[in-house]
Fold Cytochrome P450 CYP736A12-like.
Amino acid sequence: MHRNDTVVYDRTHIKAIALDMIAAAFETSATVIVWALSELLRNPRVMKALKHELRRHAAETFRLHPAGSLLPREAIEDARVGEWWIEKGTRVIVNVWAMGRDRSVWSENAEEFWPERFEEREVDFRGRESLMFVPFGSGRRGCPGIHLGLSTVKLVVAQMVHCFEWELPGGMGPEELDMGEKFGLSMPKAEHLLAVPSMSKWVDLAHQGL
Ligand code: HEM
């Protein structure tokens, strides 16, 4: 509607624009997602490789940096663990952090971020097959939010890596990044992470239509 040469947006315009945005955004993205999944389903080799790559990277981070690092339990019966005798009723603290860095389990390079180590072994986030890796705890009191937690971490990290080029500030080298931990419920990084994102080459090329 025109009034003194100015365009006035009324409810009809707003509704049309909203409808346009919804249709343009959801229909297109949903169609491409369906195609991507169809191709992956038709090519199990690629599906498996993609899935394993995402899992391997997530697993390696959870191994070195478990957000639940000390899990309290109470022994419900007498038990022997290695050379230790644990009496029923004893308060036991499971050190998940130490389990993830145990050299006798993860080899001499246990402290290294090396996701390839999960190429040879199945990633068992729940500690069902073995108790060498339990970032979500295990058993009846294990984390009920495991699927949401895992999906969130994988989705956000994949998006951030895909969409941006990342650099440390002020010409800082990778080996200078402080990896110190702060003792606390979720064992956060002691120093805040400062990183500089710039537009990813891939996204930039896509914008130029290349
Ligand atoms: C990366 C994300 C997450 C990590 C690393 C994590 C880790 C853990 C760990 C280690 C435990 C203790 C398990 C045990 O004692 O055996 C736990 C418990 C729990 N988590 Fe998570 N969690 C995550 C996300 C979530 C989410 C998204 C939810 C809810 C939607 C959730 C809800 C809970 C609850 C309710 C418990 C207590 C269960 C109980 O005591 O019976 N967690 N989580």
